[in-house]
Each structure stands twice: as C-alpha cells, then as structure tokens.
Specification:
This protein is of the alpha/beta class. The chain has eleven helices and nine strands. It is globular and about 60 Å long. This is Deacetylase sirtuin-type domain-containing protein.
C-alpha cells in the first residue's frame, strides 16, 4: 500500500498499457503471462481507444485543453532526450561520431544510458558555470551536447498532429513545450498564440547582463495565485528597468539569431548548423570550436543561448512567457502530457494544480506512467508519441464528421 505522497509515482509498464481507473494504490507491474494473454491485450486496446475517444470529445466540444510536451515527443525526429530512457530499438543511444565513443563506453560500464542528464547537464547548464569561462562552456558543453539540438531535424508525426489540433482549435487548445529543439513551431519569431516554448529555443541567443543581482528566489508578491511557475514581481521590475533606452533590449525583451552575433563568419555555423540530422553521421562536434565567445551586436556583452539554465528563473527573459503559461494552466479543464518524464518544476506544478482542481489528466508516454489516485484522475496512453498523437488527431476528425460539428470552435 502507498500513502498520499505516492500520488505521482511513475511505474514502467508495457508500451500498450493504459490505466484510467482512480485508485489510492500503486498498480503492480503485470507478469509476463498476464501481458501476453489475448484478453489482456484486448482490454488494453479498448481502454486506450476509450481514453482517446474521451479526450477527443473534450477537445471537439470546446473544453479548454493544455498540452505539455517533453523530450519524448522529439525522439522520433532524432533529437536526443535529456534523461535516461530507452526507446524500443535503442537507436538514439548510438554515438553520433567518434568523439562520443568514449563517453558512451563509460556510460555503459557504469550502467548509465545516453540521456544528457546522465552526463554533464546538471553541473554545467548554469549561468554561474557560463560566467566562469564562456568560451570553454561553449566549446566543451554547449556545442558538443546541445549546439545542434533539433537544428536540421524535422517535425515528426506527433509534432504535426499537435500543430493540426492547435490550428483547428486555437481558442481552446494550447501547448507548453519543455523542448528547446524548435520542432513545434517553424518560425521562432512568429507570434504563436497557442504555443509557449517555456525552456527556450536552441539557435537563439540573449545578451548576458553585467551582473546577476537575483537570478532566482522564492519570494514573490503573488504567492497565493493558483499556478506559480515564476516571479511576476521580478518580471515587472525588469520591464521597468528596461524602459531605459540605454539598456540592451536583448538582455530581456528580444532574442538574437546566430547570424546577428559578433563572431567570425566561419564560426557562426557552429552555433546554428544547417541541414544537420542529429541521428546521422554528422561532422564531429569536437572539431567545431569557437576562437572567441559570441557577443551582442548592440552592447558587445557576451551572448548566451536562449535556453533556461538550472539557476535561472522564468522571469529572466520574456521569451519564456511563463505568465501566459500560468494563465493557461489556471484556466484549463483538461491537462495532457506528451513525452515528459515528470522531472521538472513545470510538470510538478501542473500536476499539483490538476489534483487541487480535479482536472482530468491524460499522459501520452512510452515509459513514464502516472498512477491514478483519489485526487488524480489520469489515463495513461502508452506508446510512441509519433503514433499515439496522430491517432488522437484522427479520432477528433472522425468525431467532427460523425457528429456534424462545424468549425465554429476554430474560428
């Protein structure tokens, strides 16, 4: 038996397993005999179809739905996930070039897999580490590990299914993505009213201020609001400060593309590679070295990637748009997770809100399941996101045709 503290316990289950009935008890992993019986498989298939049907009807009837996507959504596009985990074929675990052979060998010997959090991310992906030696940070961390994250990769069927849903229901369906690969939106500068890239985007950059007086803290003047991701007081303070025309707009308000950076022309491609498939035999990342750190063209301060680092707050740049994300989560009637490992603050806050407001939760995932409890009404739809999300889009289309729904909701 498990107590209330286990409400969000994650259990590894088979790729076709679906659970939807509320229970205070952790579900046990089925035995091999149970998982292989025709009756069990049929029950899973029927439960999965019922979950997709219920979610699709919620969307078609105009319920306010927020999709929260994670790294699992982009694995089929060849983008490496951040945490350990193994797709069925293990394809993304293979080294991309000779420079990764030793790292992969070491990981294998220690039982670790190729998720980036198993390597250097926790200790290096901080603004503090960046300030210590920006050039070393770029050459030894960002370029080999994240410099080409998603750049050159193409959206897979899961991305396209979500784009289709957002386009058809722009007033009621919203997406908050944790991914920095940019695969959910083709134009980083477009005003996409249905998408928040809350952790930033690889290939964009921001100006580093002269000092960090307060990168993050627990104080805020609106702690009692229903969903609390960032610090709105600090956001207002930064906006007031940046009304000073002498301050660089790229510190907080705007983003820089790689071709805007002050950097030798031959080195700009290191920060924005073109036509690179991250899962192919790309040129050895270790051969891509910067001779100097990139600088802002306006103030000449050093520029850093537009990616939220572990010691930065959501208020640190307007690109993260956390206030809009908070509003969407506050008002949503259905919450959908797609390919996330539930290991960051965003998913913790979202699940806490779902429990408090009794919001139905759907979890599209390959490995990480959520346990239904008396306080968490969850349906786990297990399988690769590039297969399950298109099924959702197809179910929505079928229901609209069968029930004679027009496009009023999408206008």
């Amino acid at each position: 038996m498990k107590g209330e503290e286990d409400d969000s316990l994650e259990l590894p289950m088979g790729p076709s397993c679906v659970s939807s009935s509320p229970s205070r008890f952790a579900q046990t992993k089925p035995t091999a005999m149970q998982t292989n019986t025709p009756i069990t498989k049929r029950r899973r298939r029927l439960r999965g179809e019922a979950s997709l049907e219920n979610l699709a009807r919620s969307i078609v009837t105009g319920k306010r739905v927020v999709f929260i996507s994670g790294a699992g959504l982009s694995v089929a596009s060849g983008v490496r996930p951040f945490r350990s985990g193994r797709p069925e074929d293990g394809s993304w675990l293979q080294p991309r070039n000779k420079s990764e052979d030793k790292r992969f060998a070491a990981a294998s010997k220690t039982g670790l897999q190729a998720g980036l959090w198993d390597q250097v991310l926790w200790t290096t992906a901080t603004r503090e580490s960046f300030r210590q030696d920006p050039l070393k940070w770029y050459n030894e961390f960002w370029i080999p590990h994240l410099g080409s994250s998603g750049l050159g990769a193409k959206p897979n069927a899961g991305h396209l299914a979500l784009q289709q849903i957002m386009k058809r229901f722009p007033k009621t369906c919203k997406q908050i993505t944790q991914n920095i690969d940019g695969l959910q939106s083709n134009d980083p500068h477009a005003n996409n009213k249905s998408l928040v890239e809350i952790h930033g985007r690889a290939g964009l950059y921001k100006c580093l201020p002269d000092s960090d007086s307060d990168t993050d803290s627990d104080s805020d003047d609106e702690e009692d609001r229903p969903v609390h991701l960032g610090h709105r007081r600090k956001t207002r303070d930064l906006k007031r400060k940046l009304q000073d025309p002498t301050l660089c707009p790229y510190q907080y308000l705007e983003s820089l593309a790689a071709d805007q950076l002050v950097l030798p022309e031959s080195e700009r491609s290191h920060l924005a590679p073109k036509n690179v498939n991250p899962s192919s035999d790309a040129p050895c990342e270790s051969l891509k070295q910067l001779s100097v750190p990139p600088r802002c063209p306006v103030c000449c301060n050093i520029a850093m990637p537009q990616a939220l680092l572990f010691d930065e707050g959501y208020h640190s740049h307007s690109f993260y748009d956390f206030e809009l994300a908070e509003d969407w989560l506050r008002d949503c009637e259905v919450m959908v997770f797609c390919g996330t490992s539930f290991a960051v603050n965003l998913t913790t806050v979202a699940l806490d809100h779902a429990r408090a407001r009794e919001i139905p939760v759907y979890n599209f995932n390959l490995h990480d399941t959520l346990v239904a409890t008396a306080r968490l009404n969850v349906s786990n739809i297990m399988g690769p996101a590039h297969e399950t999300l298109p099924k959702l889009a197809g179910t929505i289309h079928r229901i609209q045709n069968e029930d004679g729904h027009d496009d009023e909701l999408s206008n």
